[in-house]
Amino acid sequence: MAACSSPIVAAGLGDTKRLFAEYPKCLYRPDDARDLAGRIRGQLRSPQIPRLQIDDWGTIVSAFERRREQIINARRSLPIDKGSYCRVPSRGHW
Fold first, then answer.
1. Nearest to 53 by CA among 76, 22, 75, 29
2. Does residue 54 sit in helix, strand or coil?
3. CA nearest 21: which of 52, 65, 67, 59?
4. Residues 9/40, Cβ–Cβ less than 8 Å
5. CA dist., res. 86 & res. 74, Å (int)
6. How far apart are CA 79 and CA 16, in angstroms?
7. What angle do CA 68, 71, 72 make, to 5 degrees?
8. pTM: predicted TM-score of the whole model, two decimal places
9. Which among 62, 54, 56, 41 is positioned nearest to 5, based on CA atoms?
10. How many CB atoms lie within 10 A of CB 12?
11. DSSP code string of 30-51
12. For residue 73, what pLDDT is reported?
């Protein structure tokens, strides 16, 4: 929705609250139906359209793949103690 430049009303929780911090008319207090209704009315009367940086899927996947490669390469550079990865208990010691 934010990528479509549409008026939005969202619960002011966690990352959503942080993401919409500059757009207070878009946030309602969680578990407050009156506040939600008021924010919806406000957006219908005088829309506040957030201008947010929304990455497309290609950008998100590319960033994920770069980070995954960094992690894999860092893991490869660690010394391997072959005895510590998978120790199978001897019989009767489970």
1. 22
2. coil
3. 52
4. yes
5. 21
6. 41
7. 85
8. 0.57
9. 54
10. 18
11. TT-HHHHHHHHHHHHHS-----
12. 86
Question: Please, are residues 8 and 26 in contact by the beta-carbon 8 Å criterion?
Answer: yes
Q: What confidence tens digit (pLDDT) does each residue in 8-62 have?
A: 999 999 999 999 999 999 999 999 999 999 999 999 999 999 988 778 889 899 9
| Residue type, position 33, single letter | A
Which residue has 């359209």 as its token pair? 49
Written as six digits, the tokens of 13 are 């929780």
Domain ranges of the chain: 1-78
Structure tokens at 91: 């019989």
Q: Find the largest Cα–Cα distance for the chain.
A: 74
Instruction: Report the alpha-carbon distance of residue 73 to residue 88 in Å, rounded.
Output: 28
